[in-house]
Design a protein that fits this description.
single chain, about 270 residues, alpha+beta, 2 domains, three-stranded antiparallel beta sheet, 19 strands, about 25% helix, elongated
């Protein structure tokens, strides 16, 4: 189950996904290769899109990283890039125990003391291992491994849900501004009139009419309501110079000085 709330981290099965991925496992490997080089003898970046195997990846070869002899499961795409089955495990894969991603270890290339770091693309989960007597045993990460993990985590943005309203300004919403609605539409597209939706600047589609997209998080709180129609109603503000208002056939007779309006507002309190 996915729970969504504007400007908050999404929840998947009750667990908050606090960080966005900086990229897939392959992109992460390419971005942070210099840190990975020092972090461990082999680094595996588990990801539901593409999982990265550092010593086989082009970025590892570019840095002359020795091939570790560790092979991983999944469908190989190109060197160092693998497709794993998606799931609710590490990095959005089906892997629950990080060592389960390993398909084979070439004993002729592995040695006691060899290190392995397995991480998700967000760095929220990671494990560090060292080869001892032919077995990979979990232990605390080295300072260089932690330096890489800190850089990786700091590069991942906070997750937050965004919402965009797609809307159009109808006839009545323009008739309240002008006696000649087409002139208002043209003035908007000519950028002589600025539209805001509850104070938020929208993107205006370049086609006919006044159709727009607006970030719901930027709209003044409490400005949106639902009618029995059913439909959402959003406030539309038009800002322009007085001469433009006259040119588009605006309701000049309805103009009132701001001081007069403020007096009325104070009187209503």
């Amino acid at each position: 189950m996915v729970e969504l709330a504007l400007n908050k981290a999404p929840k998947v099965n009750g667990v908050s996904a606090e960080r966005m991925r900086v990229g897939c496992g392959s992109a992460t490997t390419g971005l942070f290769a210099p840190y990975m080089f020092k972090a461990a003898d082999e680094v595996i970046v588990l990801d539901g899109h593409i999982t990265g195997l550092f010593s086989e990846h082009p970025s590892g070869r570019y840095l002359n990283k020795a091939r570790s002899g560790i092979s991983i499961k999944g469908q190989k795409s190109t060197d160092g890039r693998y497709f794993l089955e998606r799931g609710s495990g590490w990095g959005g894969t089906t892997i629950e125990d990080p060592l389960d991603v390993i398909k084979d270890i070439d004993a002729t290339k592995c040695y006691d003391g060899m290190t392995l770091l397995i991480t998700e693309t967000t760095g929220q989960k990671f494990s560090f291992y060292r080869m001892k007597n032919g077995r990979l045993e979990k232990e605390g990460p080295t300072p260089e491994a932690m330096k890489f993990m800190d850089v990786l985590r700091d590069s991942c943005e906070q997750s937050r849900v965004s919402a965009v309203f797609a809307a159009g300004v109808g006839g009545s919403a323009r008739a309240g501004v002008t006696k000649d609605p087409i002139k208002l539409t043209r003035a908007v597209h000519e950028e002589r009139v600025t539209i805001t939706i509850g104070g938020a600047r929208p993107f205006i589609f370049p086609g006919g009419g006044i159709n727009l997209l607006v970030d719901a998080a930027r709209i003044k709180y409490g400005s949106i309501y639902l009618t029995p129609t059913p439909s959402f109603v959003l406030p539309v503000e038009y800002t322009m110079r007085l001469d433009t208002f006259k040119e588009i056939g605006g309701h000049i007779e309805a103009i009132r000085p701001i001081d007069e309006i403020l007096i009325d507002v104070e009187g209503e309190k």
